[in-house]
Design goal:
Blueprint lengths: L1 E4 L5 H4 L5 H12 L2 E10 L2 E8 L15 E2 L4 H14 L24 H6 L10 E2 L5 E2 L6 H6 L7 H9 L15 H15 L3 H13 L21 E6 L2 E6 L15 E2 L1 H12 L6 H7 L16 E4 L5 E4 L2 E3 L2 E7 L5 E9 L6 H20 L5
Antiparallel strand pairs: 1-3, 2-3, 2-14, 4-9, 5-6, 7-8, 10-11, 11-13, 12-13, 13-14
EC number: 3.4.16.4
Keywords: Carboxypeptidase, Hydrolase, Protease
InterPro entries: AmpC-like, Beta-lactam-related, Beta-lactam/transpept-like
Length: about 375
């Protein structure tokens, strides 16, 4: 286990507090089946960073504590923030019909910008949906050999949207809630139509550059990931044989703006603490972002953010992310004073998808309790 407590660098900033319980939690999470993890906790001016496991299978070096990683659906919070910044600039309104900006898709005219951000549009998820009875309604390949074979393919965002729209709507717009990656690909196209600029350039203008997030990347179709970084692996079955693929370099256009971004634990801390601290959005828009839609039920999803009650009676906001090989955590108190940001990579452990999801959930809850309930005084 590698640990760096910022008390070693600046006792005045940290109060000299160590966090041995965080060291133990990170190691236990890695021991549960992940190949590596890096964690950063910022708590009212004190910082702790650490890592455990390995950077790459077959080597002994631990994941770098300042390493880049694929953040998956945590991307959605950054995309939602760009849309809301454009709302603040009066470039569009939350209740504007999306079809007015993107007429070429034949979208239901009742679908609004707000519905995209809060997943109430009813549009089919291009990565697949589950019916209430558990039947999988497939979208693009996201598992198995076909997924691995397609990791060098470039998908156009319009292609992903059209695939989703070829399927029946899940429900009438605004009447229910269903998490759909398609909503955030449409948000990308909306941003680009409204501004005449790429999502990457608007992300830099409105979020990354104002906050100095120089290690956060919108990769589009590039398979590259900046150094330093750990490696992510995907184990799967093909024709009765177990296979392992290194999915570190991959073309993330298959998920597009629903989950393609690359960042670091430091940059994600910078982002979520600034967002919740009111540095990016006017107070009314931030309040809307953090207000769960009633139909989202136990998920408690607002506009690109989940809201969660902790076991000790507090509240955190978050948006985690993950796909084969990678997982990301981003949590904050509502005022931004305490944050948890982390990356996990999977290795050669033979988990199926359901088992890995359970291990990930257990790891996540352990960390949330340690950071937001067992806070040192």
């Amino acid at each position: 286990m590698s640990e760096t407590n910022s008390a070693d660098r600046d006792d005045a900033a940290t109060g000299g507090q160590g966090r041995p319980e965080l060291q133990k939690a990170v190691q236990e999470i890695v021991d549960s089946g992940f190949s590596g993890m890096q964690l950063r906790v910022n708590d009212r001016g004190r910082e702790w960073v650490g890592s455990a496991g390995v950077r790459k299978l077959g080597e002994t070096a631990e994941p770098p504590i300042d390493g880049h990683f694929r953040i998956g659906s945590t991307t959605k919070t950054l995309v939602a923030t760009v849309v809301l910044r454009l709302v603040a600039e009066n470039r569009l309104g939350l209740d504007d019909p999306v079809a007015a900006f993107l007429p070429g898709f034949g979208l239901d005219g009742r679908i609004t910008v707000r519905m995209l951000l809060q997943h109430t549009s009813g549009i089919f998820n291009f990565t697949g949906e589950f019916d209430p009875d558990g039947t999988l309604l497939p979208g693009i390949p996201v598992q198995g050999q076909e997924y691995v074979d397609n990791l060098s393919r470039t998908y156009q965002p319009q292609e992903l949207v059209l695939l989703a729209l070829s399927e029946p709507a899940r429900f009438e717009p605004g009447t229910d809630w269903s998490y759909s990656n398609t909503n955030y690909v449409l948000a990308k196209l909306l941003i680009e139509e409204v501004t005449g600029c790429s999502l990457a350039s608007e992300m830099r203008r409105l979020v990354l550059e104002p906050l100095g997030m120089s290690n956060t990347v919108v990769p589009d179709a590039s398979p590259e990931i900046p150094e330093p970084h750990a490696h992510g692996y995907y184990r799967y079955e093909d024709a009765g044989r177990s296979k392992l693929a290194d999915v570190t370099r991959m073309n993330p256009s298959w998920v597009s703006s629903a989950g393609d971004m690359i960042s670091t634990t430091r940059d994600l801390h910078t982002f979520v603490s600034a967002l919740m601290g009111g540095e990016l959005l006017p107070a009314p828009l931030l309040a809307e972002m953090c207000t769960p839609h009633p139909k989202s039920g136990d998920f408690r999803y607002g506009l690109g953010l989940f809201v969660e009650d902790t076991d000790c009676g507090g509240t955190v906001v978050h948006h985690n992310g993950g796909f084969a090989g990678w997982a990301a955590l981003m949590y904050s108190t509502p005022d931004g004073s305490t944050t948890l940001t982390a990356s996990l990579t999977t290795g050669d452990t033979e988990f199926d998808f359901g088992a890995m999801a359970q291990v990930f959930e257990k790891a996540k809850q352990r960390l949330v309790t340690e950071v937001f309930c067992n806070r040192p005084t």
